[in-house]
Each structure stands twice: as structure tokens, then as C-alpha cells.
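Backbone geometry:
***
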Amino acid sequence: WCVSSIFVVVVVVMSRPAEEEEEEKKPTTTKTDETHHAPEEKKKTPVTIITGFLGAGKTTLVNHILKSNRHGLKIAVIENEFGAVSIDEALVAENVKEKEDIVSMDNGCVCCTVRGDLVRALMQLKDRKDKRFDAILIETTGLADPAPVAFTFYLNPEIADHYQLDSILCLVDAKHVHLHLEEEKKEGAVNEAVSQVAFADRILLNKIDLVSEQRLEETKKVLKDINSSAEVIETQNSLVDLKKILGVSSFSVEKTLEHDPSFLDENKSKIHDLTGVGSVGIECEGELDFNLVNEFMMNLLQENSANMYRSKGVFCFQGQGDTKFVFQGVHEQINFGPSETRWKEGEKKLNRMVFIGRNLNREELESGFRKCLA
């Protein structure tokens, strides 16, 4: 966007040949009158949809974009989380300049149960009187099918008039993507991981440092088999040249229709099969014992790592003062470290944990986590 804006300014201020100046002194002709009154095309706000299965690195990418001061853009973020306890919103909120610049949609998938919330969020940002945004980022839940999300920008006339779908980015976890791409679904159901790759126009193959060169090449071949037209960009920790993903105008309805001929069919029906998939959100006030948390998580993942798609949390550990800790887990891989923000003076130290997976036992998870309190 920045380049095209500068180009327009240059065109306006450039001096013109003397013949053209003389022509302007002549009586106005029909042609110049038509040119003078030609309506300017309204500039739409570009929207980037960030997809990818649970734990692929979407929130890390959003924070990377927000922290960068190179793009000079005013960006709003729409967060969608699967579960009633919001973790990603808190992590992203650390990097937005004003809390009103982030809109959270919790406890449902943006492609189905909270799709109306997406329209309301976009309208809310459009109607802001105090600020006009240069770009919108939509981070979907890892279980979302991107097709209905993209369709929103064509279904609603007011949304279509104000926003332009710039690109659909798909983050892929190089280590675990095969588990999800090969997952069997019941007949007629959407495999979200496959759909996310298929609809993307940019694929960020993330966490490449966790796999061998041979595995990396195998993964790239699988991705190209699903989507041969999308550019695959290899990344670690979701770090990428922002010029490759923002303001690229790479979304193509024509390409999307090749994959899904019913994309623009308002009456189409697809099964978004989340049978057995659920989330368990836990909140408890107090300080946690580090060793107890470590033991609890290690035992849990040893027994059920295949079905534990994602785990994440914000913790307060005993003896760590005002240091806030962030926990991230994808299947059996877990890590945590200090957050960039600390517990504020007088702030309630509320530990928040979310598990997302298949056939989770809520009672066991809640009981086990609460036993970690010091």
C-alpha cells in the first residue's frame, strides 16, 4: 500500500508539459469535464486472514507484526479462540497500542458458531470515529475452515464495500502437520488442516529447526501436492519478511473457486466435523508450584499427547515476585518462559490454562491443575 500511495502523490505533483498547460486554458471540452467528474475509487482496508492448525505459530506471527516498526501501519487485530478462557488475546494485547484495537471472539469457531461476531467486529472497527486502520489481521482458531471466513467478505455488501481481502496466510507446524493432514474424517466432513493449506495463497512452513532436512522436503512436497500455487516460505519462530505477507494483494477468487467451486454459493452445506474435539478452560487464583506443574504436564502428555492438540496458559509461580509466565504446548512439545509484561501492582494473580484436544476429561484436568497450587 505504501508504495502505491507514494506513486499517486508523485503523479499529482509532477509538472506537466507546456502543451498540456496550454490545453487547460482552452474552453472545457466534454472529455475534460468527464475526467474532472470521474468518481474516485474508494480505498478499501486490506484484511489478512491468518490460519493454521493449533500451535502452528499464529499468535507469535501476529505479535511479530505488531512489534515491527518498519511497516508504519495502524493495525487492528481480531482474535478468535476455541474455548471460553482467552489466552491469545492477553498475549496479543501486550503489543497493541490501545486495547480497543483488539477484538476477541471466544468460545467458538469463527467459521461457524461465531461467524456473526466476525461481521459485528468488522463493522465495529469500520465505525471507529477516532481512528482509521491501515490493515486488519484476523487470527482464526486452529480448528477453523478458512473458506466461510473468506466468504464473509463477499456475502455482506457493507463489508465488501469497506474491506478488501488481501491474503490468506497459513502457518504450518513442520513437526506435527502430517498428523493433522492425514487425520481421517467422516464422509463429507472438512479436514481443517487440509482446507487451511488448500485455501492459502502464502504458506509459512514454521518450526523448520525441529525437523530433519529430509522431513522438511517431504513436507514441502505434501504441501505442494495440496496447493501448488501458494508460495511456501520457510520460517523459525514465525519470523518472516513482512513485505512478503502484508499488502501483497494475493488472494484470488478464481484460484479459490478452482479448489472449491461452491465457494460463492450462499446455500452450500459442508460438515465441519469437530466430533470429540473440545476445550477445557481453567482459572484459579494464587501461586503455582513450579515442580508440581511440570510433573502434572509431563504425566498428562506422556499418556495422551496425540489427542492433546494444544495447551496454553498464563501462570504465577511461587517465589517469582511479579514475573508473569506464559506456557505453550503442541502435542508433546511444551515450553514456557517469562512474559514481556509483569503482574501489575494490585492485579489479581489469576492463573489461566486452556487445553484443546479430542476426548478430553474435564474433571481430571481441572482437578490435576488445581492441585498444582502452592
